[in-house]
Design brief:
By secondary structure, the chain is of the alpha/beta class. It has a single domain, classed as 3-Layer(aba) Sandwich (Rossmann fold). It has nine helices and eight strands. The protein has an eight-stranded mixed sheet with strand order 3-2-1-4-5-6-7-8, with helices on both faces. Strand 2, helix 5 and strand 3 form a beta-alpha-beta unit. The longest helix has 20 residues.
Length: about 270
């Protein structure tokens, strides 16, 4: 493909970067990224990927916009309360950049369908807020060979890592499995600083762009942690485990399963 004059102007600050250039911008325009979860993390990731010129953005979320979301989920506005999140996010992405093709998947991440969805994309952003979904995304991406960015936030802390299936540590290499019972329940029981979502979600978008372009050093082999209270970033080594149940030498996980359902005390929550 070749860039139009309007695209050259729109993406000029990308194009003048030596590591991107016109060829890199064309690559972004032909790339496909799936964002699973259109909350605090998925909101900034979606907006920045659209602005950067990623050609196809997939949106996967089965929820509706709630008033409590607006403190951190910046892709949704007050007028969107009660709307489907995929519809709300789609309209903002198209407003930011009409170049972006948006694919809407108005469903929850489920074992019986997620592989068929993610195999249509080049990179996946895990912007979910519960452990079962994170392990499901990790496993699905491993089986499909799709690189992805994991992130999580809680209160004032965030974490981030990128996984290249079969080459780098997967999520299960770092965390063997979901915590028991309702120990990892989301939805406001512990609270989260709204702007923390913007920091970590933007880093996920950065990793996606770097991976698509094949530039820089990806956040593989380590888990990046961030404290908003102290402004400290720290990299914790994350190595592949030979005994990993998914990507180890003798795997016991050979198919996808829904590992459980996180319950929530928030009124109207259907998780």
């Amino acid at each position: 493909m070749s860039l139009t004059e309007e695209q050259i102007q729109r993406y000029s600050r990308n194009i003048i970067l030596e590591q991107v250039g016109g060829a890199g911008q064309e690559k972004l325009l032909s790339s496909r990224v799936l964002i699973v979860g259109l909350g605090g993390l998925g909101s900034p990731a979606a907006l920045y990927l659209a602005a950067a010129g990623v050609g196809t953005i997939g949106l996967l979320d089965g929820d509706v916009v709630d008033l409590t979301n607006l403190q951190r989920q910046v892709i949704h506005h007050t007028k969107d309360v009660g709307k489907r999140k995929v519809a709300s996010a789609r309209s903002k992405i198209r407003a930011v950049n009409p170049d972006a093709a948006v694919r809407s998947h108005d469903v929850w991440a489920r074992a019986d369908s997620i592989r068929e969805i993610i195999r249509e994309y080049d990179f996946v952003i895990d912007a979910t807020d519960n452990f079962p979904a994170k392990f499901l995304i990790n496993d699905a991406c491993y089986f499909e060979g799709i690189p992805f960015s994991h992130a999580g936030i809680l209160q004032f802390e965030g974490q981030l890592m990128t996984v290249i299936p079969g080459k780098t540590a997967c999520y299960r290499c770092v965390f063997a499995g979901p915590p028991p019972g309702n120990a990892g329940a989301p939805c406001g029981q512990a609270g989260v600083l709204g702007v923390l979502s913007g920091v970590i979600g933007s880093l996920q978008a950065t990793e996606a762009i770097k991976c698509l372009l094949g530039i820089g050093e990806l956040l593989t082999g380590s888990l990046l942690t961030y404290s908003a209270l102290t402004m400290d970033f720290r990299k914790v080594p994350a190595k592949r485990r030979a005994d990993c149940a998914l990507c180890g030498q003798d795997p016991t996980i050979t198919s996808l399963v829904d590992e459980g359902k996180v319950t929530c005390n928030r009124k109207g929550c259907k998780r």
